[in-house]
Fold this protein.
Amino acid sequence: MTNALLEVRNLHASVGEREILHGLNLTIGAGEVHAVMGPNGSGKSTLSHVLAGRDDYEVTEGSITLDGQDLLELEPEERAAAGVFLALQYPVEIPGVANMTFLKAALTAQRKARGEPDLSTADFMKRVRAEADKLGISPEMLKRPVNVGFSGGEKKRNEILQMAVLSPRLCVLDETDSGLDIDALRIVADGVNALRSPERGMLVITHYQRLLDLIVPDVVHVLAGGKIVKTGGPGLALELEERGYAEYLGAAAA
Amino acid sequence: MNAEMRRRLTAAEEDLASRVAALPEGADRLGDQRRAAGASVVATGLPSRRVEAYKYTDLRAAFGQLAPVAPPADATAAAAAVAAAWDWDGLAARRIVFVNGRFEPGLSTLASLDGAVEIASLAERVRLPGADLPIGKLAGGNEDPVLALNTAFWQDGVVIRVAPGATVAEPIAILSLVVADAPVAVTTRHVVEVGAGATVRFLEHHAGPAGIAYQASAAIELEIADGARVTWARLQEEGAAALHLATLVTRLGAGSALDRLAVNFGAALSRDQGFVEFAGRDSRVGFEAATHIDGRRHSDATLVMNHAVPDCASKERFRSVVADDARSVVQGKICVAPDAQRTDGRMMAQAILTGDGAEAINKPELEIFADDVQCGHGATSGRLDETALFYMRTRGIPKAVAEALLLEAFLAEAIEGLGDEAISEALTGRLRARLAAIGGKAT
């Protein structure tokens, strides 16, 4: 692959004294959707948080680049401006900050960081309303404080709305399917699929295959014991669903 | 050996004693009132940390010297100060302006206030032959030394009477400014009587020069008659070296309501103290405070809520953002008299500490002598929510902007608690500008 969008090389990351990722390699090309599956405790959430730049995680070795740019040198907000978006497993409630205000602050800051002109309020509103409409997010929800009092499904849809408005280069979805019923899952998946494009890469992190029925990946990786232990096509997800992770737990320990 | 006898006078206390001795002689009631109030503070000394109500705000230590009484400000400088501080066009068309403790009719706009609202200078009012003494009606039995100092030395103030049944559409602004290039003392005293069934809103604004250690004292006696509704917002933006001492003494008749908001941004040391008495049933008081202090500032909010009669409700929320090495003090006391049944009294103090040396002190007190009441208090203090900060940053919002948004949201909830959209919006705007000006400093 010549045009890697995301390149993770020999990534070692720790929380406190404990190393969780032990030399992880992952390459995602523009236009590709990759899934990372793995059992509890394999390091899936660590991977997503390290990509986004959470400072509770310390990278002790290895590199992460996006379009050749060293992400590890960047603060979380700089990574966002560079095009990284992390849809959280548990979106955070922010009392007192309206959804619309939050989105505007985010988009304004990103455009400013990239040296792009600020969007007019009218254009911004139009863009948000159009995307919100597709996700079944009401104007009333846009006025409410970010995620406060939202149902699980609403929170996840709100994540996808942010993703659509911010239009990142790399979308990282951390267990976006958790806590969703099948209808909510479909809305979220439709939202994600609408964002698939030749310029954009996606990393879908999940326990379960059911999300991958709806967001069909190009590549599936198995993460176990802090490393990618197997890579395959979409068929690998089905195989995992049938046989579980048991054989990989052994492989990771070896 | 009595500690009182051995107490050594500070320079300020010696000065205080000589100023009290120099109060004009004469058998008039006003002179008596001033001398008695001054003598009470001379007798006890300035309140130190040994006095329970001043345990965390030691004024004996804070008053190095008593500053000389502020001279009248030069007219041009006074007008410039008003122009710089006045930001309420479109909110309050009418204003009552004090500069250096003196009423400035030329800088005030009172034209449309006649009719429902009567306004007079306190200094002029007490000079009228045969006039009653408007001050002390509510504060008479109150022995607080800060209030006593104000009673002894007030320079001027305003007497406001709102006619019964009147609804005053626009807020009335009371602007208190200091113009000085050396430390001065400024003392104002206001008396406000809101007639039965009247509705009125006030916006009280204090400001002064940044680098001058001036001493500002402001006291208000607010009588709220039966069925009246009062909204009172105050914005304290004194200069960073100033001492600001504010007292509100208020009494509510039956079926009345007071919503009060204090926004505290300024002064090196400030104390905003309230003494509230419910004198009639079915009344309600809401007290909100939004404090943002940095540097080594000290901000004290003290409130005594006296439920003397049944069926009243009081709700207080103190929110403070404490940066750098600043210190916030909240003292709230709810007293419920033996027959004040069905009292509902609630108090909450919440602080976000953003500075390593920042401190928040909460001293709640409940004195409940009735049995059928619901009273409670709570306090929280902590850092900014790291999870929320990270979340905002992953969306591209820089750390300083994210922090400002979270702090604004925290304080704006108290500001919005006033229940007056127009005033709250204006004050939230002021807060936003302050947070933006401070920028990343609050980290």
